[in-house]
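Let us practice reading a record.
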Amino acid sequence: MDWLYVLMPISGVDIFWPGLIILGLGVGIIGAFFGMGGAWMVTPGLNILGFPMAFAIGTDIAHMAGKSLISTLRHGKFGNVDYKLGVVMIAGTVVGFEIGAQMIMWLERIGRVDVTVRYMYLVLLGFITWLVFSDVIKRLRMEKEARKAGKEVDKLARGIEWHKTFHKIKIPPMMHFKMAGVTCTMWLPIFISLLTGWLAGILGIGGGLLRMPALLYFVGCPTHVAVGTDLFEVAISGLYGTASYTYKGRTELVAAMIMLIGASVGAQIGAVATKYVKGYGIRIFFGFAVVVCAVSIICKLIAAANPDVRVLFDTLATVLILGMVAAMSTYIFALFVRGVKKELADKKARQGK
């Protein structure tokens, strides 16, 4: 079965190339659907497939940049991107990213990069899981109480409304973001971009794992605008990150190109699918994906700490991450097909009148 493996020329490891194709296509769909580069799945996925962590980070960022740019263009056609908000966040994204990348180089020198990054992923995934499902539960409770009172909940209302507190900060200059429908101090999105840029550099993610929820809960963007604007930022941080990690010799471009072929197709499907699943539907899908990713990382940590069960838990981690990507991307594709069919049928019915 040697033909199923390809030697990576820079890192010197043999990689199961069908796994790269599954990651690329599946994460292309999922990333565009959630408004992220999908790197929060790909970096652990590449590490599980055999890449050293620093190479997994650099390679993922290179793959992420091209895919996110394609997704941004597609979301822009739907009016889902607040380019003004995205431009304001660029400086913080770039500065934060370089700080994170330098920290990775330091952790690699002292031999602590793998375990540190995995534990940071677990903390972050745990926080995001709590945030998303707390919001969903509170929103469902609001809808239940409204039904008892014979009323309807405002479609724009959300369970967690931290953005209302942050909007009370009036430090000049104040800015209005038309597409997002938000007016806030300029320093709020800059701070968010600095934090998520740092995460992008140290975890090998486009920052979208935290930025999309941050745009929802801290800035107050509607879900579809948070998705599109986040992808714009992921593309920016990804392009900068590719240059930074390539210069540092930690980017495996062969693997990135293999993944990008499938990701380019998947990104188109995922972006269009957001037309048919709005608001809390996207958030619930996102929450379940985060949980599965966290479990796969726990399996990898158990494998590293216990040589006797290493093969079992390494295999389980691989099955979980690739299985989740395959299952969720298939489901999103089904939503895409169903939505397109309904849209075409409605269009045909209108023409027949």
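A brief commentary: The chain has a mean pLDDT of 79.
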